[in-house]
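Tip: read the tokens left to right.
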């Protein structure tokens, strides 16, 4: 009798020899485990691909979204230099009266001189303008003065028309019209002149 034979049990239940019966694993269970492992591996690979795509394209997408956001502020840029405009003392003004009111040209010329302008002729307007100017005034100068002397002189009175002719000199004619009452207040004229010298704002792409 073998030592592995339980006491009291006969030969029918004896275990003899040097081999023992083995338990076989369930074949269905092994298949299920293999499917689960494969699914997990595929999931990890897919997650890795998504992360790589996000790394390479995420910054571009975030930048596009940020640029389209309404709360993004323009990136600060250095302010451009102020416009190079002539000073009042560099502008010679001929004050011409196109109205029937006497002494108006001299009075206006004296006030412009106090504000720093150089005064040229003070007289009545020529025939083509005499009693024909219905506006406040006509500022007449060379084409080169259109973006320099004319707008500077225009800060001294509102509603003046600006015109150019073929003259070669830099003098500007201030032809007083029927609607003229007085020059603009000195403080208002100074504010207008300061604003005129300010550079135009430059639009820029916003950043968050």
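Filled-in amino acids:
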């Amino acid at each position: 009798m073998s030592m592995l034979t339980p006491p009291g049990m006969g030969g029918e239940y004896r275990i003899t020899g040097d081999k023992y019966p083995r338990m076989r694993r369930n074949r269905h269970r092994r298949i299920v485990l293999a499917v689960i492992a494969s699914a997990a591996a595929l999931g990890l690979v897919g997650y890795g691909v998504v992360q790589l795509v996000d790394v390479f394209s995420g910054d571009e997408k975030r930048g596009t979204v940020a640029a389209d956001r309404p709360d993004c502020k323009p990136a600060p840029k250095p302010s451009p230099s102020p416009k190079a405009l002539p000073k009042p003392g560099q502008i010679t003004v001929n004050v011409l009266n196109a109205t029937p009111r006497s002494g108006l040209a001299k009075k206006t010329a004296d006030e412009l001189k106090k504000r720093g302008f150089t005064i040229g002729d003070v007289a009545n307007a020529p025939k083509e303008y005499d009693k024909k100017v219905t506006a406040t005034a006509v500022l007449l100068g060379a084409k080169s003065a259109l973006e320099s002397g004319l707008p500077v002189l225009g800060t001294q009175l509102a509603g003046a028309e600006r015109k150019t002719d073929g003259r070669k000199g830099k003098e500007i004619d201030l032809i007083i019209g029927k609607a003229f009452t007085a020059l603009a207040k000195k403080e208002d004229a100074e504010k207008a002149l300061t604003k005129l010298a300010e550079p135009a704002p430059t639009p820029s792409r916003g950043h968050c």
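The mean pLDDT is 78. The longest helix spans residues 27-68.
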